[in-house]
TrEMBL record:
<dbReference type="GO" id="GO:0003999">
    <property type="term" value="F:adenine phosphoribosyltransferase activity"/>
</dbReference>
<dbReference type="GO" id="GO:0006168">
    <property type="term" value="P:adenine salvage"/>
</dbReference>
<dbReference type="GO" id="GO:0006166">
    <property type="term" value="P:purine ribonucleoside salvage"/>
</dbReference>
<keyword id="KW-0963">Cytoplasm</keyword>
<keyword id="KW-0660">Purine salvage</keyword>
<dbReference type="GO" id="GO:0002055">
    <property type="term" value="F:adenine binding"/>
</dbReference>
<comment type="subunit">
    <text>Homodimer.</text>
</comment>
<keyword id="KW-0328">Glycosyltransferase</keyword>
<protein>
    <recommendedName>
        <fullName>Adenine phosphoribosyltransferase</fullName>
        <ecNumber>2.4.2.7</ecNumber>
    </recommendedName>
</protein>
<dbReference type="InterPro" id="IPR005764">
    <property type="entry name" value="Ade_phspho_trans"/>
</dbReference>
<dbReference type="InterPro" id="IPR050054">
    <property type="entry name" value="UPRTase/APRTase"/>
</dbReference>
<comment type="function">
    <text>Catalyzes a salvage reaction resulting in the formation of AMP, that is energically less costly than de novo synthesis.</text>
</comment>
<dbReference type="Pfam" id="PF00156">
    <property type="entry name" value="Pribosyltran"/>
</dbReference>
<feature type="domain" description="Phosphoribosyltransferase">
    <location>
        <begin position="24"/>
        <end position="148"/>
    </location>
</feature>
<comment type="similarity">
    <text>Belongs to the purine/pyrimidine phosphoribosyltransferase family.</text>
</comment>
<dbReference type="GO" id="GO:0005737">
    <property type="term" value="C:cytoplasm"/>
</dbReference>
<dbReference type="GO" id="GO:0016208">
    <property type="term" value="F:AMP binding"/>
</dbReference>
């Protein structure tokens, strides 16, 4: 299936020069959304995964259904101040700004095998920060899965050699 046909590209969002890959058009079509999750599942099903972690917010719409389909748990990685329990936090850079991510201190147990899932791999800042948070809690990263990879930004090279899979590359 050509998933690119179902991803809208919006020029100059959120700032001039960015060509935003909008997955809401893919998510709106139940059959295509299901096929995307099913294909990601096929790409990672041989990995030993205890839990999937997904960064806010689009990582939730990829990671949670992927976790459900694999029969494993899901751990949200949120922006600072959004989680109610005791958290750890880390700063990170986006391709067009800076932010801070947080996880519950009890979200990952030492030794758990974690797959990170998100909609997009761009510069790698969000995912590298997610990796750092998971490792602080003693988790073992077994890979990362994305709907989209902006290969021209080479974010993959910043992830310390973890196995990366993506459905669509730009």
């Amino acid at each position: 299936m050509n998933f690119k046909d179902n991803i809208r590209v919006i020029p100059d969002f959120p700032q001039p020069g960015i060509r935003f890959k909008d997955i809401t058009t893919l998510l709106q079509n139940g059959a295509i959304y299901k096929e995307a999750i099913d294909q990601l599942k096929e790409m990672v099903k041989e990995k030993e995964i205890d839990v999937i972690a997904g960064p806010e917010a689009r990582g939730f719409v990829v990671g949670a259904p992927l976790a459900y389909s694999l029969g494993v748990g899901f751990v949200p990685i949120r922006k600072s101040g959004k989680l109610p329990g005791e958290t750890i936090e880390a700063d990170y850079a986006l391709e067009y700004g800076k932010d801070k991510l947080a996880m519950h201190k009890d979200g990952i147990k030492p030794g758990q095998k974690v797959l990170i899932a998100d909609d997009l791999l761009a510069t790698g800042g969000t995912i590298q920060t997610s990796i750092d948070l998971i490792k602080q809690l003693g988790g073992e990263i077994v890979g990362a899965a994305f709907l989209i990879e902006l290969s021209y930004l080479d974010g993959r090279s910043k992830l310390g050699g973890i196995d990366v899979v993506s459905l669509v590359q730009y």
